[in-house]
Design a protein that fits this description.
Largest sheet: 7 strands, mixed
Structural class: alpha/beta
Order of helices and strands: EHHEEHEHHHHEHEHHHEHEEHHE
Number of helices: 14
Helix content: 25-40%
Distance between the termini: 32 Å
Oligomer: single chain
Length: 348
């Protein structure tokens, strides 16, 4: 049977790569403090005494104490200020989800005010889009500087255990749906080269569904993908395209990646989750994988990880449940493979 392997940011983190949004923001603030005066579309910083970010030790300390050492921050983007506020409270932040929350806020503003205020809210959405665009540019620059030539023996063991096909021959495919922008996964493709088919008896195909940093023909998609949200259809009816600029579906039209996935899903498959949060920012896509009318999704195995002593398996089950319609929750309970401590991808 075909195998569908969902690769998320946790896969990179399991290789020791600093690819989280928190890592990115730390890099960004560190670079700001290299200048006595810095300004972009997100922030302006005046640092006349050249205080280094490293001396603060954390985003929380930086936000709380920058003024004590005469660093002046001026936020030019409310959206970016909100992101930093979340991180300064030691909270995990999903930038794409925060973006959609802001979008909904402006949508509600349009629906409760008089029509003469519409242009004001459209302009706010355009400013929000500009902020997200700048964050995307900075994120691409940051990730492009990370060395992804890393290997994890535990990952190889997982691939060997679950992607090997028993029998004399097989036409099965291991379809890697990689949500990362990095190419860390390529370090394992040698396992599936022709001379190794006797070991794996499975062909491999990689789909960088959200783009790849090293492929100009597969540009990065950065935005939101929960078109199942009840408010989304109402947003479409506003007839204001600015509200749709960063919805992922429109980014998918730039390549045939989504069509390739759809074709793969037309045959029965087993799902393996390696480091993907299964959050609602990819809800429309994950719903099309998990909650299928043709029942081609036969099982969902969570390759969990342990961080600071906490296992993420049960959190993942809660996230996955959001991708099933209410009337299909029984299907979800049958598809998710029960917890197995041996299915641990990584401990960090």
């Amino acid at each position: 049977m075909n195998k569908l392997i969902l690769i998320g940011n946790g896969f990179d983190l399991a290789h020791g790569l600093e690819t989280s949004y928190g890592n990115f923001i730390t890099w960004y603030l560190t670079n700001l403090c290299e200048h006595s005066l810095y300004e972009d579309k997100l922030i302006r910083i005046e640092n006349p005494f050249n205080k280094k970010y490293a001396e603060f030790g954390s985003i929380q300390a930086f936000i709380q104490n920058h003024s004590v050492v005469h660093i002046k921050l001026t936020f030019k983007s409310d959206f970016f200020r909100d992101i930093l506020d979340e991180l300064s409270k030691a909270r995990w932040v999903d930038i794409e989800y925060k973006y959609f929350q802001k979008l909904l806020l402006h949508y509600r503003g349009m629906t409760i005010t008089n029509p003469t205020s519409d242009n004001n809210y459209v302009n706010k959405v355009k400013e929000l889009n500009n902020s997200l665009g700048t964050i995307k540019e900075k994120l691409i620059k940051y990730l492009s500087g990370i060395d992804t030539v890393k290997y994890n023996d535990e990952i190889e063991k997982i691939f060997t255990k679950y992607l090997r096909i028993r029998g004399e021959s097989s036409s099965a495919v291991a379809y890697f749906l990689d949500f990362n922008y990095t190419d860390t996964l390529q370090n394992y493709m040698h396992l599936f080269e022709n001379e190794n088919y006797e070991k794996f008896k499975v062909a491999a195909q990689v789909n960088y569904i959200h783009g790849n940093l090293k492929d100009k023909n597969n540009p990065v998609i950065f935005g939101y993908g929960d078109e199942m949200d009840p408010a989304y259809s109402k947003i479409e009816q506003l007839n204001q395209n600015a509200f749709l600029d960063n919805i992922k579906s429109f980014g998918y039209f730039r390549t045939n990646n989504y069509q390739s996935l759809t074709q793969f899903l037309n045959s029965p498959f087993e799902v393996f989750i390696l480091g993907h949060s299964c959050g609602i920012s990819d809800r429309i896509l994950l719903n099309s994988i998990f909650d299928r009318d043709d029942n081609n999704c036969r099982s969902i195995r969570i390759l969990h990880y342990i961080k600071s002593g906490k296992d993420d398996y049960f959190v993942k089950t809660q996230e996955i449940s959001r991708h099933f319609k209410a009337e299909n929750k029984h299907k979800m309970r049958n598809l998710i493979i029960p917890f197995d401590e041996n299915d641990c991808m990584s401990k960090v």
